[in-house]
Amino acid sequence: ESNGATIAFEMVTSVDLSKRPFTITTRKLLGGSGPYKTYKAQALIIALGATPKFLNVPGETGKGGYWSRGVYS
């Protein structure tokens, strides 16, 4: 935000990456059904959250485990 970024709490419904500027269509996060806003952008960062899936084998996690000491997802 201090560098001019805008944070929008909206759900992305479609992205057109076929030409620049890219077109991002969103809807309201809560209570919205139809298109809400359309954004145009020259660059797009797609950040997807991830949660590791452990195998539950001994030494994988916990005290003395190898997670982030050579074992990663």
Please describe what this structure looks like.
With about 70 residues, the protein is an all-beta fold. Helices cover about 0% and strands about 25% of the residues. The chain contains no helices and 3 strands. The chain has strands at about 10-15, 20-30, 35-40. The chain has a 3-stranded antiparallel β-sheet with strand order 1-2-3, with no helix packed on it. Strand 1 (about 10-15) and strand 2 (about 20-30) form a beta hairpin. The two termini are about 30 Å apart.
Keywords:
3 strands; 73 residues; mainly beta; three-stranded antiparallel β-sheet
Structural class comes to mainly beta
Oligomer: single chain
Number of helical stretches of at least 4 residues: 0
Instruction: Give the N-terminus to C-terminus distance in angstroms.
Output: 31 Å
According to DSSP, the number of beta strands is 3
Q: How is the biggest beta sheet arranged?
A: 3 strands, antiparallel
In terms of per-residue confidence, which ranges show pLDDT below 50 for 5 or more consecutive residues?
none
Helix share bin: under 10%
Work out the radius of gyration.
19 Å
Mean pLDDT: 83
> In one word, what is the shape?
elongated
Strand fraction band?
25-35%
Strand order of the largest sheet: 1-2-3
Instruction: Spell the H/E element sequence.
Output: EEE
Task: Characterize this entry briefly.
The protein is built from no helices and 3 strands. The chain is mostly beta strands and 73 residues long. Strand 1 (10-16) and strand 2 form a beta hairpin.
